[in-house]
Amino acid sequence: MLAVDLWAVTLSVGSMIVREEGVHNQLILIVEDHWQIRDVIEQYLSREGFRTSNATDGTQGLASFQMLKPDLVVLDIGLPRQDGFSVLNGIRRQSETPVIVVTARDDPVDELQCFRLGADDYIIKPFRHPGVVVERVKATLRRCRMRGANRLIRFENLAVDLDAYTACVHHPTGVKKLSLTMSEHKLLARMAEFPGRAIQRAELIDACFTESSPQEKTINTHMANLRRKLGDADAGVELAPVPTIGYRLEKKDG
């Protein structure tokens, strides 16, 4: 039996996977042309609470990276159209997004080349269990959080970039950027950091307006504008008012 077939069997064994606290809908791009390996890695990551997207060749992978801005890339080397070295080089020209190379090339020269190009980890196929890849993904993301890289908050299809002060909504047809004021961005980032939780207006003022103290009705105006912009972008999330308390960011029904 092939290794990937053994992996598929273990998918039904829930006790083999332990969910890690702190995984907040992070997006992992898998660039892999072997469909069985790609599908198994994708299923294991999904079971751990990650969002996933995939590409089957290097050109598509680089385009997907540029469009989706994932939190981490799992990258094969032996890809059609553009090999993994070229894709990794293209990623590093524009981003510090962590990249884990997963390849059948058990050659120290290839491994050294990947690290020189900026890879964060190197895993040789066939690996004994896909859970190992998942744990390496978690460990790499933890290291990146510690050094403050790739500060992106995601909730459903919404992504808020804390460094670029931008926010966008990912649709199957493409990415729609939200045109936000600085105040609206701060408020949305705070709400996205704690999805599903009712946040008091006073807390929003303390967290988002350190240099001023706007009135509560000003917060209400900002939130009304945010609700409209999220609705216009078909974000799939909404800012729900919580009577006498404040607001809650939640998934939109329907």
List the SSEs and their pairings:
Blueprint: H1 3-10, E1 27-31, H2 35-47, E2 51-55, H3 58-68, E3 72-75, H4 84-92, E4 99-103, H5 108-117, E5 121-124, H6 130-146, E6 152-155, E7 158-161, E8 166-171, E9 174-177, H7 182-193, E10 199-200, H8 201-208, H9 216-232, E11 237-242, E12 246-251
Parallel strand pairs: 1-2, 1-3, 3-4, 4-5
Antiparallel strand pairs: 6-7, 7-8, 8-9, 10-12, 11-12
Q: How would you write the strand order of the largest sheet?
A: 2-1-3-4-5
Structural class: alpha/beta
Work out the oligomeric state of the chains in this entry.
single chain
CATH architecture of the largest domain: 3-Layer(aba) Sandwich
Query: For the residues shown, what is the average pLDDT?
Result: 84
The CATH H-level homologous superfamily of the largest domain: Response regulator
Instruction: Determine and state the CATH class of the largest domain.
Output: Alpha Beta
| Element-by-element helix/strand order | HEHEHEHEHEHEEEEHEHHEE
Dominant shape:
elongated
Count of individual domains: 2
Number of strands: 12
Please give the share of residues in helix. Answer: 40-55%
How many H/I helices?
9
Query: How much β-strand is present in the residues?
Result: 15-25%
Q: Fill in the CATH topology of the largest domain.
A: Rossmann fold
Distance between the termini: 43 Å
